[in-house]
Prior knowledge:
- The chain has 7 helices and 9 strands; from the N terminus they run αβββαβαββαβαβαβα.
- It is α/β, with parallel strands linked by helices.
- It has a single domain, classed as Aldolase class I (TIM Barrel, Alpha-Beta Barrel), CATH 3.20.20.70.
- A 9-stranded mixed sheet has the order 3-1-2-4-5-6-7-8-9.
- Strand 8, helix 6 and strand 9 form a beta-alpha-beta unit.
- It is globular, with a radius of gyration of 17 Å.
Amino acid sequence: MTNDKRIERGELLPVMEEFYSLQGEGFNTGRAAYFVRIGGCDVGCYFCDVKEAWDASVLAPTPIEEIIERASSFPAKSVIITGGEPLLYNLTPLCKGLKENGIETILETSGSSKMSGEWDWVCISAKRNLPPIEENLKCANELKMIICDKADFAFAEEYALKVDINHCLLYLQPEWSVSDKMMHLIVEYIKLNPKWRISLQSHKYMQIP
């Protein structure tokens, strides 16, 4: 079977990097987890801090058995699948293998491609470039909106209306390069609109991956 077919079946994934660290953003901030960053992205946010993950063609396809074996070797039995845009791939076999090894599965996605996999927690970060599929928003446990300028508050509210706020936490996160400028605005906005919480990229303050 060709690599293309094996990628289509979810047996191989173009992994950019894997590492064990602490989650720095959103609901799971501070938790130890094994991170799997899958290459390939069709969203292309100008503020992306991992642009090297966009081009999957330069990455060697990785057998999911190897990913599962490495993830299982760490004390925290929690894996965060991120990208790039991980939903460009069939993630069901990877999730199945992780689950069989007693590992919690967490997804970070723009939600712009068809959902696959079995997830304990889904964080969707809606982007203007390529909006989420509305069906995916029903799966969201966390909506994390990146705030670059004042117009992004209205965009965030648009998506807050599309998730089930009884089951989905709402976060506003300053884009890192403008965080000094936007932090006060976000704080004041949340004080007036307390359904939102603030998310900070604490791993950058701690200088860890």
